[in-house]
Amino acid sequence: MAIPVFRANNPGWGDMSDYVSHFAKSTEGSDAYSNIISILASGRIEARNPFGVGRARAPLSVRHDMVCFSEVPLHQLSRLASRRQSEHGIVFRKDFVIANGGNPILYAYAAGGLTVPFEALMAQGAGDAAHPIWLIVPFVDAPGAGGSYFFEWEREWRKIGHLNFGLDDVAFLIIPESHHQYARIFFDDAEVEHTGPCYRCPFIDARWGQDQIQEALSR
User: Fold this and answer.
1) At 9, is the secondary structure helix, strand, or coil?
2) Residue 205 CB neighbour total at 10 angstroms
3) From CA 57, how far away is CA 17, in angstroms rounded?
4) How far apart are CA 1 and CA 149, in angstroms?
5) Distance CA 33, CA 88 (A)
6) How far apart are the C-alpha atoms of 198 and 151, rounded to whole Å?
7) CA–CA distance, 123 with 137 (Å, rounded to integer)
8) pLDDT tens-digit map of 204-213
9) Is the distance from CB of 147 to CB of 112 less than 8 angstroms?
10) Which keywords belong to this entry (predicted)?
11) Per residue in 172-212, pLDDT tens?
């Protein structure tokens, strides 16, 4: 029997999620709203930066830019919204992201010694772009190392390279509740005028509680 790509969690487990989210952030010359519209129009989240314990040590030819996600439960997205300073995002089922090369990252605490074997393997692979360690360390991070903040609460997932997606791959869109009606009209007009994709998936607000989210998903 084939092993499933992903096994859904018990629906009563409020601390777990079958989804991962990606928030669009403001960039120079473009706010978060404009950036999420660009992502939805193109059907692509672009990988723009390297991550992981090896990002500064990998051979130049092995720069693995990545897309980042979080598996924080939907009713706790307000934490991410506050951290990202954004109310706009996109949510996928975990099995879709897994099938496209996504994976949870490993949090390796330097104080516990878990970074030591990775350091040794990176030393072995120095100058060798084909060494498999460079495919592993993008998914390993050391919270608190080098003065970085402790971000384990984000329950981060990553994928090497861009993520391409279609309309049916999007589980939900994260949009402020005050914008839901306007977003529906925007997407309906895009479909009628053939100016872009029309997303008919549920909309949720990052500040909603569990009951509001469940109500939106049951419609």
Assistant:
1) coil
2) 20
3) 34
4) 43
5) 6
6) 34
7) 12
8) 999 999 999 9
9) no
10) Plasmid
11) 999 999 999 999 999 999 999 999 999 999 999 999 999 99
Place of tokens 């306007």: 182
Calculate Rg over the CA atoms of the chain: 19
Angle of CA points 98, 102, 105, to nearest 5°: 120
Per-residue tokens: 130? 């084909």
Q: How far apart are CA 12 and CA 16, in angstroms?
A: 9
Q: Which two tokens mark 199? A: 């997303």
Write the pLDDT tens digit of every residue in 145-171: 766 678 888 999 999 999 999 999 999
pLDDT at residue number 1: 46
The H-assigned helical ranges of the chain are 32-42, 77-84, 94-99, 115-125, 133-136, 180-193, 210-217
Q: Among 68, 32, 62, 28, which residue's Cα sits nearest to residue 162?
A: 68
Give backbone dihedrals phi and psi of 171, rounded to 5 degrees, phi first: -80, -45
